[in-house]
Amino acid sequence: MRIAVLSVLLSLAFPALAVQTLRVDVQHSGDATSEAIALDRIVVEPLPWAGNPDRPIDASGRGANRFDVVDAGTGRTLYSRGYSTVFGEWRTTDEARRLRRSFQESLRFPMPAQPVVVHVYSRDAANRFVETWSVPVDPSSPDIERATKPAPAAPIAIRHNGDPAHKVDLLILGDGYTADELGKFEADARRFADRLFTVSPFKERASDFNVWALTVPVPVSGVGRPSTGSQRASATGVRYDIFGSERYALTLDNRAFRELAQYAPYDVVEIVFNAATYGGGGIFGQFSTVAAGNDWSDYVFVHEFGHHFAGLADEYYTSPVAYTAADLHRVEPWEPNVTADGAHPKWKTSRVPLPTPWPKAAFEAYERDIQARRARLRADRRPESEMSALFREEQAHVDAMFARSPYRRATGAFEGANYEATGYFRPQMQCIMFTRSDAFCDVCRDAIVSVIDLYTGAR
């Protein structure tokens, strides 16, 4: 019955003559100063390619990495995408200065009709793309894995607005749900989808999205949180405490995540995990995550999806993070919503001073107290309700503080962004990427729209 339901769903979703999906799995290894990529395997996924055949080239310039699929005979680029990686984040941590590690990654693209070469690029010190690795791919090679296992579950069509080739296909994967909690997962997935489409510009472009939900049950409810001694068997590998940050939740098991996701159409993925502790994460072009049971989960879902979907930078800088401080030499970030040039930002501004004044000193003084209280709550293992109350208090205070600023609605260049108090600037005082507010700034909205257009073919 499960396979029959899956077949019916996907026959409705895909046209009859669809191109297959090819996935190149790699190992990305290195340390803070070096990197190497090696081929793991090449896989034909069970479902057709869900991407837009009319927009194969990504000209956005976003991502810490990019890959190009180039026709081996003609040299023509057939497909390209910018993306970022877990490895790229890890190499900015203190651990990367002490040892080498390897992380799994995948490059997905439509099956080519002839041999191609896949080229992978990374950013150099000046944020320019330089080639890091390449691999020839012959679609007729017997080494390509073509056999697939039966689907472990059927995807749920949360919202279906048309052919995946001309829609953004968002897959909500579940983790940490037992067999008795599958109904809860579906309810959580529907709640998050509903929330996403109340936020501009997703609200105005809701008809350009399909939303799917998929999970498999786990034996014990929840996901691991090693800092408290909690370990769990996981469907996708998601856990807390990534890179030593108690709220940072990602999967380092790319294969487990991809092996489940491949049974639903997807361009982008958010992993919803069954936990109440505040947490989540997002990697551009890979996936995002959110703890479903937290009071702030609706906000975190949208914030982390902003990272994953549009490559938006974090604009906050007072919360603790796992990354080491940036070099004093500020290179212009590739992310669309932060800049190193406060006098000449890369976005259109209002008629305001540049850099733009805001109550920075008062904000930072208040945040020092908030972060100290936050750390004490975690150290004392206080109930999550107390952390949620602290966040509500914080947001109310910040909203009131900013409401008195003459530039509270202006687009300018406000110093303090990208985890740094000085040297980086954000477009507006408030944004989902800065505080726990309920709206994206104008620059972030425009950046999101451009990615929606890339996937749907709109101009």
Automatic annotation (TrEMBL):
Domain Peptidase M64 N-terminal: 20-133
Signal peptide residue numbers: 1-18
InterPro entries referenced in this protein's UniProt entry, alphabetically: M64_N (IPR032625), M64_N_sf (IPR038171), MetalloPept_cat_dom_sf (IPR024079), Peptidase_M64_IgA (IPR019026)
Gene Ontology MF annotations: metallopeptidase activity
Keyword check for DNA-binding: no
Domain of life per record: Bacteria
Keywords assigned by UniProt, alphabetized: Signal
A Pfam family annotated for this UniProt entry: M64_N
Record-given protein name: Peptidase M64
Natural source organism: Cognatilysobacter lacus
Source organism phylogeny: Bacteria, Pseudomonadati, Pseudomonadota, Gammaproteobacteria, Lysobacterales
